[in-house]
Amino acid sequence: MPPIRSRGSRKPPPAGFEDIEDTLLEYSNKMRDAQNASHEGKKKHEAVWPVFQISHARSRYIYDLYYTREAISKQLYDWLLKNGYADANLIAKWKKQGYEKLCCLRCVQTKETNFQSTCICRVPKAGLRREDGGGEGGAGIQCVSCGCRGCASSD
Question: 33 is in which domain, residue-wise?
Answer without folding.
Answer: 17-95
